[in-house]
Amino acid sequence: MSIKKEKIFHGIPVSSGFARGPVFVYQPYLPVISERVLKPDDIDSEVERFRRAVRNVEAELRELHQQVGREMGKDFAEFIDVQLALLTDEEVLNETERYIREQLRNAEFAYSQTLKGLTVSGRAAQVPFFRERFADMADVSARVLSVLLGDNLPSIFGVKPGSVLVAHQLPPSDAALLDPAKVAGIVLEAGGKTSHTAIMAKAKEIPAVFGADAILKMIQEGDEILVDGYRGLAILNPSANRLKTYEAEIKREQRRRASLKALVEEAPVTLDGKMIDLSANVEFLIEARQAKDNGARGIGLFRTEYLFLARRRPPTEEEQFEIYRDVAELFRPFPVIIRTFDLGGDKVIPGYTEANPFLGWRAIRFCLDDIALFKNQLRAILRASAAGNVKIMFPMVATIEELRRAKLVLEEAKKELRKEGKPFDENVEVGVMVETPSAAILAQQFARESRFLSIGSNDLTQYTLAVDRGNERVARLFDHFHPAVLRLIKNTIDAAHEQGIWVGMCGEFGADPMGVVLLLGMGVDEISVVPGLLPETKQVIRSIDTGVAAEVAHQALKLSTALEVERLLEREVHHRFTKLARSLHAVKGAGGE
Ligand code: PEP
Ligand code: MG
Q1: Using CA atoms, how far apart are residues 223 and 217, in angstroms rounded to an integer?
Q2: Which of 138, 140, 218, 396 has a CB 3.0–4.6 Å from the CB of 363, allowing a cystine?
Q3: What is the pTM of this model?
Q4: Cross-sheet strand order for the sheet of 12-15
Q5: Residues 54 and 80: beta-carbon distance below 8 Å
C-alpha cells in the first residue's frame, strides 16, 4: 500500500500475468563531460585517479562475470571477457595518460577524447563483424566515466530482485539478459505487441506492458508499480482498494494456471478428433526444457539469432552444434525446426544502424551476403540432424531465388560434411517461413520447392499493413485479424495443401485464441507458441470443432475490416463455441478494473 497518489497508464498488453514491486528505472547513461585544464602539480594525481577508476571497473566487471555466469550460464558471461579486454587495452590506457600529461586535461575528458580518436582512426571499425565491439566499448566507457564522474550507472544486471523494470525502450539484446527470477515485470514507454522484446518477455513469462506513454516523467524515488499484463495497465502507486481487488484476482489466476497444468498429458486434439501438432517457439535450451515439460510435440521455431546476440559475436559451429544437438535429442522423435539467423530488423547488435532496418539487411539477405557465417550455421544444423528430427527453415524469404541460393549453400555444407565423414540426415527437410506478402502471394511456387511452410504472422502483418511491429505509435494499426492478412494466411495454407506439404503458424496469431479458431477453420496442421502458452493453447484447440471453425473462417475472409472480423469472432465464439467461451471468460475474469 502506498500513500502516494495512484496513477493508471493504459498501454499495450504484451505479456500476460500480474506483477507488483518497486520501480527500477533503466535509462541509457549519458555522461556530461566537461573539460578542465590541470595545473602541472595535479597531473600525477589525475593519472592516478584515472588508473583507480579503471581498476574499480575491472573489479566490477569481474564480479559481474561471476554473477552472470552463475545466474545465466557461462555463455552469457562471455561478452564480459571482451569488455575486460577493451577496458585494459594498452593503447587506450597509454593514450589517455599521455593526453592527461601532455594536454593537461582532466581524466574523463582525456579518456573520451582518446576513444573518439580511436573511432575516427578506424581501428575500432576494423574489428570483425558488425562493428560488434562498439556496443561493448560503449558499455565499458560508460562504466569508467560513471566512476570518474561519481554517477550511478544503471545496469540491466543491477535490478533488485522483485522489482519492475521501467524504461523508455529495451533492445531485444538487453531483454535476452533479463533474469525472470529477478525482474517481476516490465513497463516500457515504447514498443509493440509483437516486437522481439515483447516476445522475449513472453518467453521468460515476465508480465509486461508496453506503450505506457510518458510514465518515466511521473516516477519518483521509492514508487511502487502494479503491472496488469492482461489489460495493458501499469498502475503507479496502486491504492489500497486496487491492491485488494488484484490480490483476489492474482489468486484466481494462480488457480487457473495450476488447472491448465493438468492438460500437459492430454493430446492437442479438436472436438471432432483432428490432431494438431502443438509445438513451441524457443530461443534457448532452457526454454526447450520448459516446452518439453509443458507438453510440446516439438519445436516449431528455434530462433537462433539470440545465440549470437547474447554473446555479441557469431557463435562457432561447435557451439551451435552442441545446442542444436541437445534440443534435437531432447525432442526426438518430434521435430525441431531450426530457423537460420534472423539478424537485422530490431535484432541488431547495438551500434549498428540502418535507415529502414525492417526493410533492410535482415535475415536471409544478411546470411546470403555472409556465406561463411551462413554455411557455418548450416553445417552445425546438419550435424545436429544426426541426433534427432531436425528441420531447417529460412526466414524473411521474399523471392524464389533466395530460397534456391540458400539451398545451394546447404548443398555445399552437405558436400563438405560428407567429405569430412561427419554424419547428418541426408533427407533433412527444408521449409520456408512465410512472412513477407511476396512469399504468401507466391505460396504455390514456394510450396513446390519446400517440404513445409510456416507462417510468421508477426512480420506478415507488419509488411502487409506497412505497420512497424515495434512502434507503439502505430500499435493500434497492427492487427493480425485484418482481412488482408487473413487472406494471405489462407492462400498459404491452401497452397501448401495443394502441393501435399504441411503448413504451420509460428507467429503470435497462433497464441491468440481467436487466431486459433481461424487457423483451425482454415485447416492449419501445426501451431507453435511460447512454452508458457502451451497449456492454454491446447485448451483452446480442445474446445474447437473444425467444421464450425471452417464456417467462421469462411465468413471472416469475406469481411472488410479487422474490427468486423473481431466482432464476428466474439459473436460466434459466444454462440457456437461455448466451451471455448467459458475458458476465455476465465482469462478475462483475471483482469483488473
Ligand atoms: C514472425 O514474424 O511471425 C515470426 C514468428 O518470426 P519473428 O517474430 O522471430 O520475426
Ligand atoms: Mg519474423
Answers
A1: 12
A2: 396
A3: 0.83
A4: 7-10, 233-236, 224-228, 18-26, 163-167, 183-188, 208-210, 12-15
A5: no
Closest-CA residue, ligand 1 atom 9, reads: 303
> How many CB atoms sit inside 10 A of residue 308's CB?
23
36 Cα–ligand 1 center, Å: 50
Residues 163 and 198 in one domain: yes
Kindly state whether residue 244 falls inside one of the protein's structural domains.
no
Q: Is 458 annotated as a binding residue?
A: yes
Asked about 367 being catalytic, the answer comes back as no
Strands (E), 155-232: 163-167, 183-188, 208-210, 224-228
pLDDT tens figures, 467-490: 999 898 999 999 999 999 999 999
Known catalytic membership, residue 506: yes
Q: Do 15 and 135 sit in the same domain of this protein?
A: no
Question: Atom 1 of ligand 1 has which residue's CA nearest to it?
Answer: 456
Asked whether residue 468 is marked as a ligand-binding residue, the answer is: no
State the residue for C-alpha cell 547474447. Answer: 310
Flag whether 55 is marked binding. Answer: no
Active-site annotation holder among 65, 480, 482, 506: 506
Give per-residue pLDDT as tens, 442-475. Answer: 999 999 999 999 999 999 999 999 999 989 899 9
Contacts of residue 109, Cβ cutoff 8 Å, sequence gap at least 6: 33, 34, 35, 36
Neighbours of ion ligand 2 (CB under 5 A): 435, 456, 459
